[in-house]
């Protein structure tokens, strides 16, 4: 069975509904006929009734992500891809300022005036190589993506204010990176301040296991000032160096698989989602599914508001054309046909809806006895 309700189970095993509910009730489980049965409950009931059942996790039954042929990718098809960076660090140490500084430092002259508008992700070019920065509102977004198995970040830049040193959220960020096994580069920010003490930062970070390269360790520390716009090139160089060591690869010729980093409902455009492509190339006209949303890529808008025809691995754009606003962390995938995309979305929609219903079902004893 896919997702099975109590009454559906009774139907399938040709037993009275009241009998099924009674057995569960005697086991201390209060259910109504519309509740969904878990794997354990189904097994107990099956043995009570002497029937054989096979259970399939409904999520597995229509998990389009599993159909993605990435694992059997021929190594000959793989090409170098840009690194995806997340910036973390203690409150007020300058994460947002640094993201803005990097973006502004790399803005073409025609776009002068400074970019201050918030966006979920952007890419900059350094010596002809792209680097994509993910602007997560905080650790939460990062965790939710990781929980969904979307390992999006290749390198974490931890920002530490040179005049403040390691603080609780700095430690958290370090722990995060270590647990996720993501390499770290430390940006010692606010170097313009009179009280800047980079050696203190290095010593404190070394205590957490991040040993500076110039002290014989393997972690790059780069002094920067988001305010004075210094050290930005050095930081980007350190990122490219680390990326080179990691030999990040993807197949640009596959159908696209991307991760939603941000989404919203936009006036005139409808649902829009900022995505980062993990593998393949996303093109205008592609049939896409994204959780319970589906559609066709109508437009791809770059972080500089340019209309793009396609985006490759590690590249980012705002996708226009989805039927609904997907949650961040959701996987967006290209399907062969519109029909296929629609079907996956529909199944996911029904599944999500059922889950909501079964979670919100509260049973009282009165209701229960009226059923028995
Ligand atoms: P939260 O998002 O609140 O965690 O903060 P944040 O880490 O994004 O820090 P943000 O970029 O908002 O900067 C915090 C304060 O530090 C602001 O007042 C910035 O102007 C200031 N600041 C950031 N970078 C620098 C810098 O390089 N030098 C100096 N002097 N001030 C800086
Ligand atoms: Mg901020």
Automatic annotation (TrEMBL):
<feature type="binding site">
    <location>
        <begin position="189"/>
        <end position="192"/>
    </location>
    <ligand>
        <name>GTP</name>
    </ligand>
</feature>
<feature type="binding site">
    <location>
        <begin position="135"/>
        <end position="139"/>
    </location>
    <ligand>
        <name>GTP</name>
    </ligand>
</feature>
<comment type="similarity">
    <text>Belongs to the TRAFAC class translation factor GTPase superfamily. Classic translation factor GTPase family. IF-2 subfamily.</text>
</comment>
<feature type="domain" description="Tr-type G">
    <location>
        <begin position="80"/>
        <end position="249"/>
    </location>
</feature>
<comment type="function">
    <text>One of the essential components for the initiation of protein synthesis. Protects formylmethionyl-tRNA from spontaneous hydrolysis and promotes its binding to the 30S ribosomal subunits. Also involved in the hydrolysis of GTP during the formation of the 70S ribosomal complex.</text>
</comment>
<protein>
    <recommendedName>
        <fullName>Translation initiation factor IF-2</fullName>
    </recommendedName>
</protein>
<feature type="binding site">
    <location>
        <begin position="89"/>
        <end position="96"/>
    </location>
    <ligand>
        <name>GTP</name>
    </ligand>
</feature>
<feature type="region of interest" description="G-domain">
    <location>
        <begin position="83"/>
        <end position="231"/>
    </location>
</feature>
């Amino acid at each position: 069975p896919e997702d099975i309700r109590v009454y559906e189970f009774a139907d399938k095993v040709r037993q009275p509904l009241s009998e099924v509910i009674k057995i569960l009730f005697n086991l201390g489980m209060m259910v109504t006929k519309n509740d969904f049965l878990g794997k354990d409950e189904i097994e107990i009931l099956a043995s009570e009734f002497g029937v054989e059942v096979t259970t399939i996790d409904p999520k597995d039954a229509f998990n389009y992500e599993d159909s993605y042929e990435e694992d059997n990718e021929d190594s000959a098809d793989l090409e170098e891809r840009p690194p995806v960076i997340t910036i973390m660090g203690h409150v007020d140490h300058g994460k947002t300022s640094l993201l803005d500084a990097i973006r502004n430092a790399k803005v073409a002259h025609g776009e002068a005036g400074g970019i201050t508008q918030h966006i979920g992700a952007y890419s900059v070019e350094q010596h002809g190589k792209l680097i994509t920065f993910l602007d997560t509102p905080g650790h939460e977004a990062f965790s939710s993506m990781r929980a969904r198995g979307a390992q999006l970040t290749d390198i974490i830049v931890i920002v530490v204010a040179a005049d403040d040193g390691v603080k609780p959220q700095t430690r958290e960020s370090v722990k995060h990176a270590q647990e996720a096994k993501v390499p770290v580069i430390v940006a010692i920010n606010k170097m313009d301040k009179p009280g800047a003490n980079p050696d203190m930062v290095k010593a404190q970070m070394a205590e957490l296991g991040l040993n500076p390269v110039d002290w014989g360790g393997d972690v790059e520390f780069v002094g920067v000032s988001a305010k004075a716009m210094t050290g930005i090139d050095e930081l980007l160089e350190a990122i490219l160096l680390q990326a080179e060591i990691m030999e990040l690869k993807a197949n640009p010729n596959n159908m696209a698989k991307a991760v939603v980093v941000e989404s919203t409902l936009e006036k005139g455009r409808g649902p829009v989602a900022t995505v980062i492509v993990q593998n393949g190339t996303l093109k205008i006209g592609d049939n896409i599914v994204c959780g319970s949303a589906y559609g066709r890529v109508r437009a791809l808008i770059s972080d500089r508001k340019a209309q793009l025809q396609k985006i490759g691995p590690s590249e980012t754009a705002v996708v226009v054309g989805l039927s609904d606003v997907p949650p961040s962390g959701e996987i967006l995938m290209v399907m062969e046909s519109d029909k296929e995309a629609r079907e996956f979305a529909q199944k996911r929609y029904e599944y999500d809806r059922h889950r909501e219903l079964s979670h919100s079902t509260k049973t009282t004893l009165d209701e229960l006895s009226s059923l028995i």
